[in-house]
Amino acid sequence: MLRNLHIASFKCFQRLDLELRPLTLLSGVNGGGKSTVIQSLVLLSQTISEREWGRTLLLEGPELALGSAADVLNQNARDRFSFGAATSAERLQWAFKAADRRALSVELESVQRDGQDVPLTDPVRWLLPAAEAEASSVVSTLRRLSWITAERTGPRELLPLRDEHGHQHVGARGELAAGLLHWRKDDPVRAVLCIADRPPTLLHQLKARMQEFFPGCDLRVVPIDGASAVSLQLKSDHRSDFQRPQNVGFGLTQLFPILVGVLAAKDGDVLVIENPEVHLHPKAQQDIGMLLAKVAASGVQVIVETHADHVLNGVRLAAKTKAISHADVAVHFFGNSDGTFAPMSPKLDADGRLDSWPEGFFDQFDQALSQLL
After folding, report:
1. Same domain for 117 and 180
2. CA-to-CA distance for 91 and 22, rounded, in angstroms?
3. Among 307, 246, 303, which residue's Cα sits nearest to residue 39?
4. Domain range holding 194?
5. DSSP characters for 254-294?
6. Are 44 and 125 found together in one domain?
7. Global pTM value
8. Domain endpoint, select from 220, 243, 265
9. pLDDT in tens, 170-192
C-alpha cells in the first residue's frame, strides 16, 4: 500500500507531501490540484508499464497525455520536478530534468531511497537500477495501479476485445471492462465483497451489484464473430429485452467499469477512480461511497476524487457501521484560497464525524439554504 505521495515543482504544486491510506478521498474546488495528485501517480505507473527499460518519464502516453515538459513544470521551476512515493518498507524519490522544454518525456536525473542516493547504473528498469527494481515495494505497488478517469466511455455498440493478457485492468476510460468480464467471468470474487445469495464469481457478483444500484437490470457480454470486439447488452427492467447501451440509462454504462474494476481487483492492487458519482442519483452516489469503503477495507487501496457530498457521506456511514476503520480513511480538501494549493485534511472519527469543516468543503447546500430561508 502507498502511504505517502511527494510532488515538487510539478504543475500547480511547488511542494506537496500527502498522506495516503487504504481509502483516500480527494475533494475541493476546480483547479485546486486534485487531478495533479492523480496525474503524478498515473505518470509513474504509465511509465513503468510502457517503458520498462529506460531513463525517461513518459508525459505523452496512451492513457495519460499531458503534453510537453513546459506544460507540466511549475511556473517557479526552471527545468526540474520530482515525484516520491512511500510504502511501509521504503520511500523512493525521483528527480527529473527537462533538457528541452518542448520534449514529451523528461530524463531521470536521480533517485533516492530513504533519503540516500541510489547510483543509477545501467541498465535502468522501472526507473531504478535493474538489479534493485524487482525488490522495490514502491515499484511493485505502482505496477498494480489502475486508473479510471472521469471521462469514461459512454454507451457504445462495440467495445474492444484483446487477448486475455490485454484485459488486466478495465482501462482508463472503462473501455476494456466488457472484455475483462468476457475473459474472467468465472473468476472468484474475494469472499468479503460477495453478496451471500449469489455464486461467488465475477459475472454473478457483478450482476448482483448492478441490481443493487439499478433494480431489475441485467447484462451480458456477447463476442462479435469476425471482429476483435464484444457487445455489452443491458436491460434496465426485468420485463424488458436486452438492448443496446444507447437505449438504457446512462448511469449503467458509467458505473459498469467501476464495479468490474473493484470486483476483479486483487489484494494489494491500487485503484484510482475519478468522480464515481457521474450520472448517478444521490442514493446511488451514497451507495458507491459505502462500497468503495468496503473495497478499501478488503485489502485493495482506493484513491477517489469526488465532488459529491453523497459519496463522502457514504464513506462516513461506512466508518460509523464499522465497514471500514475510521483510521483507514484520509480526507483531503484542496481549496486554493491563499494560492498555495496546500490541502486541508479533516479527520474522521469512529462515528463518521469530521473534526473540522473548511469553508467550501461540501457546504454549498447549507449556504444556499441560508439564502432561501
Report:
1. no
2. 17
3. 303
4. 153-265
5. HHHHHHHHHHH--TT-EEEEE-TTTT--HHHHHHHHHHHHH
6. yes
7. 0.94
8. 265
9. 999 999 999 999 999 999 999 99
